[in-house]
Amino acid sequence: EHDDLPTKLVDILNGLHGEVWRKDRDAYDLTDAQRAALFHLTGVCLSHVGSATKVQSTLEFILSHSSDLITDGVVRRACARGLGIVAQKHFDLVVGVLGKAAKTDAATRRAGSISQSLFGKSTAVQQAEYLRAMLALSLGYCAVYAPSPDLLQEQVCEHILGPLHTALTQERCVLVLHSVVEAVKLALDAIRMSPETAAQRDPFLVRAEPERMDVLLNKDPALRAALGLQREKLVRALLPYIETPGEQDDEHRVAAFEELICPALDAVSSLIALPVDLPSDLYASVLENSLHVLIFSIPNDPSPLRSDETLQRIDPLLLARIQAVTQLVKSLLFHAHSWLGVSRLLQAVHAAGAACPVEFIRWTCTQMLGVLCKAAPILSLPLQQVDQDEGESNVHSDVGDWCECLALLLPRTGDSCRIVVTVAIDAVQQLLSRCEWTADVHIGEFATVPDSGDEQVNRTTRNTTVAGSEKTAAAERSKGGDPAPPSQQLVGALVARLPPSAIPPLVQHLMPAMHDADSHAAMSGVDALYLILQACCEKLSAERATNLISTVFEEVEKVSHSSVRQLVLSCIKVLALHHFESAVSELLDTGPEFNTSILGALQVLA
Predict the structure, then answer these.
(1) Rounded-to-integer distance, Cα 30 and Cα 453, Å
(2) Could you read off the pLDDT of 206-228 as tens digits, one per residue?
(3) What is this structure's pTM?
(4) How many CB atoms lie within 10 A of CB 55?
(5) Pick from 10, 94, 2, 92: which is nearest to 46 by CA?
(6) Whole-angstrom distance, CA of residue 508 vs CA of residue 569
(7) What is the distance between the terminal CA atoms of the chain, rounded to a whole angstrom?
């Protein structure tokens, strides 16, 4: 009996809207909050009106009389959301009305570059920008409130993503671009039925976790191909917005970057997360741009990070940017279909700054590595791989790539910055949980960071760890003493649990640790290398040992820390104990003129 109630409410609200528009503003006006409520309530009422004619006439009235009422961002969003809510019942009608409104003079009016520079933007031009911003955002909310996932996926390319792509390539107003970029994210989140979309549709109901994204997408090959192509166009259109400004860029370009970078990163992240194949060049461009944004945004401040309180004082805008980059890189992990892809992604993040002199950059990159490790796939091994204990050729390729990821993080567990150590241990723990051999290993923190120059301390802890492996550390903890350093705990666990075939790739990937900018991390990495060689050197083939010795001789002279260099030479001594001929042969081949490091190696061997 109340079917006509929404229609009557719409008439009342339209009358109020008309009064506000016609009356003198000073005498009869609404606050921004009241306007927002008016637009939102109108949308709710229209979503319950069955007459398409009534809905269309009301929408056309609102759009033709709202350009001077949506100057405030909150009001624009309320109006856009209200239009999206109407799409719950009248999807085709709403997107059609929005498309027509975008072509009207009220929306397309723009100022010429000369007149704008002389006189600024006219009121009509500013109102047109407000209207275009609201219309773009409305398209995003239409996707959020679409009646069904199937309907949305069938029509999103033509009616929502297509117009948004056009706006990205043609629009110059930053205010409008901000709404366009946000609408792209809203639409892609809706296509994937992400938790954010569920919260937008009904923030009061607790919803279960969504199904896997690849299950939600329509199985029609043509539809998936169209979505993939549209996704590629949008990502390429957004790439310029996640490029860092150069020295030659003007103030407008810099201001646009500061305003749009976080929304653009979020939009690209949502696009990349769409479960359709991503071209390799686009993958590389997105990764490169996002990491450039990360390093560009962090001040090159060498001051140390003393405690978590230091992190709490960091600019919230910087933290938001770091979070956006992290989420984008995490979305790229979806397209890493093997541990080779995972390791390459981790290598790129590590190279961006995980081993640089600035502690905050090291902390940021290591924390990002931890996020990726947590989302990495389980290391699945063939059954025969678990049982094979002999022969290096038996190692599964995924095992080598997993070991490479461990080797990237292991030096950071001995970093001179305690906060970096904490996030590095967490990241290593995530990696260990991904492998059945190490799933039950738990690494504890060392109470103090040893002086990287104190060789006696390092030698003592090395001997203690190798002799008792994990049992020694457990005994020390039970007696109330400090456990061994995390890197040494990790080595003890790996030596005890990994098959011999997994040791050579781990040793190989630990070699670059000697060049770490942080002396403590470099010492931890080389110390781990020493311990592994000490425990497993006899199991290395002659060819593998020769290659390792050759690499050490080539790299040791480039090591910047003298104490690290001395420990690297100790690794040669360990190799020579079981592969003496190879060590001496490689050593003599570097002559007849020997540098100080080679002379040091001769002294160590003697």
Answers:
(1) 71
(2) 444 444 444 467 778 889 899 99
(3) 0.84
(4) 22
(5) 10
(6) 16
(7) 101
